[in-house]
Automatic annotation (TrEMBL):
Protein name stated in the entry: DUF4252 domain-containing protein
Organism: Porphyromonas asaccharolytica (strain ATCC 25260 / DSM 20707 / BCRC 10618 / CCUG 7834 / JCM 6326 / LMG 13178 / VPI 4198 / B440) (Bacteroides asaccharolyticus)
């Protein structure tokens, strides 16, 4: 799991860049149908680890610890997160259940879902899918599928195009120095 977490940190800037390239404004043409994923069964499924971080817990975390790879520009994105759900397993049957549960998201079955990023490498596949409403993403699903592990991280909140642009622009300035 640690290698995937490190891998995800490195991909955070790529993810934000891809979000900007795909463009959140295109979502304004989508219908207002909301995708709902029923995750209650996952809480009872053996060999699936579930982590929930509440809004109160997120507010109690010092802002300095919310930096991703030291990028202050990420603070706008981090401020937009209201809760985080993490579902992970390395058990074959449990992975099948995770895939079934999140199939509507990964297969983009509803018009409010948009694939924002896709990265395939030797370690597996990382998908970033946004649940869009107007000019904002209200849910971000990061799905990491490896040979022997499957992880879904669901960020709930409000993520505006302006915050995403600011994060990428400030990070690019730092890299050029």
């Amino acid at each position: 799991m640690k290698s995937y977490t490190t891998h995800l940190s490195r991909l955070s800037i790529i993810a934000l860049s891809m979000i900007l390239l795909v463009g959140l404004p295109a979502s304004a043409q989508r219908s207002s149908t909301r995708t709902r994923i029923n995750t209650s069964k996952l809480l009872e499924t053996k060999n699936i680890d579930v982590v929930y971080i509440s809004p109160a817990m997120l507010q109690s975390v010092p802002k300095a610890s919310l930096k991703i790879d030291g990028a202050d520009a990420m603070s706008g994105i981090m401020d937009g997160i209201t809760s985080i759900h993490i579902y992970t397993s390395s058990d074959r049957k449990a992975i099948q259940e995770l895939r079934r549960t999140f199939a509507p998201v990964i297969e983009l079955r509803h018009s409010d879902l948009e694939q924002l990023m896709y990265v395939k490498d030797d370690n597996g596949v990382v998908n970033l899918i946004g649940q869009l409403q107007g000019d904002n993403a209200t849910e971000l699903y990061m799905i990491v599928s490896g040979d022997d592990e499957y992880t879904v991280i669901n960020f709930s909140g409000s993520f505006s195009r302006r915050e995403l642009e600011k994060a990428v622009t400030q990070d690019n300035r730092k890299r050029k120095k």
